[in-house]
């Protein structure tokens, strides 16, 4: 996997620099990236958990390649600096030490956020806790590009803390990312305001099979933390965890400063519309 990532990195770092030497070639490079991303989304859909519906394919496999040129180019230019290598069907286990280019042992705190949205919470957590390492996963490619640009802008400043030291981004399915993490390696799996899938519960991210993956990847003292303002999703999640109460114990969540230090645009919008956020931890 490292070899494949290095090959891709060389392609991005060397060839794309020359290829984008003219405006015409930059347009061709953008078209190439779009085609590759569509192909990657379709393969992810093909090998994901179950057959995906047409709306999922439209959103993630075909119609999720929008975004500014700067965002699209950031996903290419910054791949070797901030990004988790692409995980395909048959990929091996993720080497977290290689990912952060330093030794990560069993005692280190490794946090994964599934669905980081605009990345505000993810970036603030990484900055507040430089002793932890964070991996954020999201399917929304324009959002991924924006977060990468924000990280690059910060790290180019003259400051002590750098996102490169403890934060990586995965542009893809967060459950697939967790599945490829080493067993008993994660300190926390975090979800903040995931899509509640009000009209189709079978596509909600918390399912029986999801918990089995979490059990395998979380440390014995690890935790799953959820923030949601959707009543239906909160009730659904509680029901799923109660079915597996022999392996999961509901506990008081840590103070929000430890994992939800700021209110995202989504949370503020929900409050303005009268929705109440609930926090749960197992």
List the SSEs and their pairings.
Blueprint: H1 2-19, H2 23-46, H3 54-62, H4 69-77, H5 79-82, H6 96-100, E1 110-114, H7 120-128, E2 133-138, H8 141-155, E3 167-171, H9 174-179, E4 186-192, H10 208-217, E5 218-228, H11 231-243, H12 265-272, E6 278-281
Parallel strand pairs: 1-2, 1-4, 2-3, 4-5
Antiparallel strand pairs: 5-6
Helix pairs in contact: 2-3, 4-8
Briefly, what is this?
By secondary structure, the protein is of the alpha/beta class. Helix content is 46%, strand content 13%.
| DSSP strand count | 6
Largest sheet: 6 strands, mixed
Termini separation (Å)? 32 Å
The whole-angstrom Rg is 19 Å
Mean pLDDT: 84
SS class: alpha/beta
Strand-residue fraction?
5-15%
Low-confidence stretches: 1-22, 43-49
Taken from the alpha-carbon principal axes, the silhouette is: globular
Describe the structure in your own words.
The protein has 282 residues and is an alpha/beta fold. The chain is built from twelve helices and six strands. The chain has helices at residues 2-19, 23-46, 54-62, 69-77, 79-82, 96-100, 120-128, 141-155, 174-179, 208-217, 231-243, 265-272, and strands at 110-114, 133-138, 167-171, 186-192, 218-228, 278-281. The protein has a six-stranded mixed beta sheet, with helices on both faces. The longest helix has 24 residues, at 23-46. The protein is globular and about 50 Å long. Mean pLDDT is 84; it is low at 1-22 and 43-49.
